[in-house]
Specification:
With 203 residues, the chain is of the alpha/beta class. It is built from five helices and twelve strands.
């Protein structure tokens, strides 16, 4: 694919942001409960002892209750910290999270930086997404942090994107650098894709 897809991606992201912004408080609360239930079940099914997750922003599917559950269960949780070079550092979850807005404008915890390679130790990766199609192709928010991270891992554990139900679609615009995911978690279900990339088969 070529750079001609950039305007199409921007328009789709803007539409998805608007839809998320228009969700009611009750819809967000129900979605949060469902996503937590699905993520807990996924973590138990994979037997993950270490997971990477992210601090959700206001309009994103809420991952915070899941992170709190994982920490209470003794599961090590890594959160991403954006860097100016386009890579991600990582820090561990603590009992009392202090937050700031990172370079990418999303919430990030304040903690000891563990470096980009810390992600190699986790058993499950939970990532944000704007949308995912039924082949597992992920449309991110245009910053490229996760595409770079996932694309550089030699032994990548299962990767699941967290989205709202309507954001699982037939097709998203795809470019060469875009990375697929193994599945999606929505408020009502967890979907695993039958077509996985060779990168994911090396776990």
């Amino acid at each position: 694919m070529t750079g001609d897809l950039a305007p199409q991606k921007r328009a789709l992201r803007a539409e998805l942001r608007e839809r998320r912004h228009n969700l009611t408080r009750d819809e967000r609360s129900a979605a949060s409960d469902g996503i937590t239930e699905q993520l807990v079940a996924l973590t138990r099914a994979t037997g993950a002892k270490q997971v990477s997750c992210y601090l959700s922003a206001v309009d994103e599917p809420n991952t915070r209750p899941f992170a709190n559950w994982a920490r209470a269960e003794g599961i090590r949780v890594l959160f991403p910290i954006s860097r100016t070079d386009g890579l991600l550092d990582w820090t561990t979850a603590t009992d009392e999270e202090e937050e700031t807005l990172g370079i990418a404008g999303v919430p990030e915890p304040l903690g000891e930086l563990l470096g980009p390679i810390a992600i190699n130790d986790v058993d499950l990766i939970v990532v944000p997404a704007a949308s995912v199609d039924r082949t597992g192709m992920r449309l991110g928010w245009g910053r490229g942090y996760y595409d770079k991270t996932l694309g550089s891992m030699e032994r990548c554990p299962p990767v699941y994107a967290v989205i709202f139900d309507s954001e699982l679609v037939d097709e998203v615009p795809r470019e060469r650098h875009d990375q697929a995911v193994d599945g999606v978690v929505t408020p009502t279900r967890t979907v695993e894709f039958s077509t996985r990339s060779a990168r994911h088969r090396r776990i």
